[in-house]
Design brief:
394 residues, alpha/beta, Aspartate Aminotransferase, domain 1, Aspartate Aminotransferase, domain 2, 46% helix, binds (2S)-2-hydroxybutanedioic acid
Length: 394
């Protein structure tokens, strides 16, 4: 049977990771996969995570199964982190998932189950795994304009025009903050316009929030998600703990499905548990337990927030340094958008050919669509990147 398998195209982010590893050059710079690196190029275990793990190992008396939805304390802690008190708890169904990708996958499974005809609208561009999973699940999909290559900001007029054609019951995937792959984000006022439009279209939002705390801070980064959640009768939120807790390999995420009222919630909750059972039964527990321990202990939480804030400010500093260096080299403000973007990524807005040129001549590894992981830079590699950008003629 295996001879019938069709080779699938490689995921461009993961293929780049492999190519970087094989490059023998010492001075190579990895701006590919979205993983935070400190000034020494390491991805550290956060202090609060280390301490939470120590406590869990010391105190844990059993490895027996949790529930199909994961530990309810994890759901409560994450609902609180993402939504605060904007939505009544009894309207929210939630399941722990293997990472943010697991949450997206389960959200799509739920949509497919509830409304097989619903089209899923994606920003163009979006994280490549969004369209890939949708294609794999054979779900109807469409794009809405998002990035303006001329300004390297959001093409808001194009976005509104495209979302104006969304049909009743269609699902619109919105990035909660720190748009991946562009780094260009809607302002709060623009998000309000999008919400008003989607309400008139009777659409269902699906929010992907994977970088809370990496843009403008934990609370500000949650604002768009909260505005969406409080405006709609029904919506879905897929949240990842991979980046903001640095627990990438532990696969820690959550899917929240907000029902129109408390009476409708139990059916959604049971269906999400059923979908977990079909796909992998019980979700992973360790990362979720670490996150719960941190969020519910005031000292650990304060330490986590402080370290996350250091990380965020470090990324902002690198953005500014890169924009300043490019200003110095080009004598222009052409690259000032790099300081305005938020989150881990910025899309440079150049061609795959010039991306390739920077890789060959300067050992700079960025995704072919010119997405750069700003958190992969440090003070020493910023000038190398700036020179590569200018030499390549971007
Ligand atoms: C990324 O976009 O680089 C991250 O979300 C990691 C991944 O799984 O692609």
């Amino acid at each position: 049977m295996f001879e019938n398998l069709k080779a699938q195209p490689a995921d461009k982010i993961l293929a780049l990771m492999a190519a970087y590893r094989e490059d023998p050059r010492d001075e190579k710079v990895d701006l590919g996969v979205g993983v935070y690196k400190d000034a020494n190029g390491n991805t550290p275990v956060m202090r609060a995570v280390k301490e939470a793990e120590r406590r869990i190992v010391a105190d844990q008396t059993t490895k027996a199964y949790t529930g199909l939805a994961g530990d309810p304390a994890f759901s409560d802690a994450m609902i609180n982190l993402v939504l605060g008190d904007t939505v009544a708890r009894d309207r929210i169904a939630a399941v722990a998932t293997p990472g943010g990708t697991g949450a997206i996958r389960q959200a799509l499974e739920l949509i497919k189950y509830a409304a097989p005809e619903a089209k899923v609208w994606l920003s163009n561009p979006t994280w490549p795994n969004h369209p890939s999973i949708i294609k794999y699940l054979k779900m109807p999909t469409a794009d809405y304009r998002y990035f303006d290559n001329a300004t390297r900001g959001v093409d808001f007029a194009g976005l509104m025009e495209d979302l104006g054609t969304v049909a009743e019951g269609d699902v619109v995937l919105l990035h909660g903050c720190c748009h991946n792959p562009t780094g260009a984000n809607l302002t709060a006022a623009q998000m309000d316009e999008v919400i008003a439009l989607l309400k008139t279209r009777k659409a269902v939002p699906l929010v992907d929030i994977a970088y809370q705390g990496f843009g403008d801070g934990l609370e500000d980064d949650a604002a768009a998600t909260r505005a969406i959640a409080s405006a709609f009768d029904e919506c879905l939120i897929a949240a990842s703990c991979s980046k903001n807790f640095g627990v990438y390999r532990e696969r820690t995420g959550i899917l929240m499905a907000i029902s129109k009222d408390a009476e409708s919630q139990p059916l959604t909750q049971k269906t999400l548990a059923f979908l977990n059972r079909q796909n992998y039964s019980f979700p992973p527990d360790h990362g979720a337990r670490v996150v719960t321990t941190i969020l519910t202990d005031p000292d650990l939480r304060a330490d986590w927030e402080a370290e996350l804030e250091e990380t965020r400010l470090g990324m902002l500093k690198l953005r500014q340094q890169l924009a300043d260096e490019l200003k110095r080299l080009t004598n222009s403000d052409r690259f000032s958008f790099l300081a305005d973007h938020r989150g881990m990524f910025s899309r440079l807005g150049t061609t795959p050919e010039l991306v390739e040129k920077m890789r060959e001549e300067h050992g700079i590894y960025m995704v072919s669509d010119s997405r750069m992981n700003i958190a992969g830079l440090n003070e020493k590699t910023v000038p190398i990147l700036a020179k590569a950008i200018v030499d390549a003629g971007v």
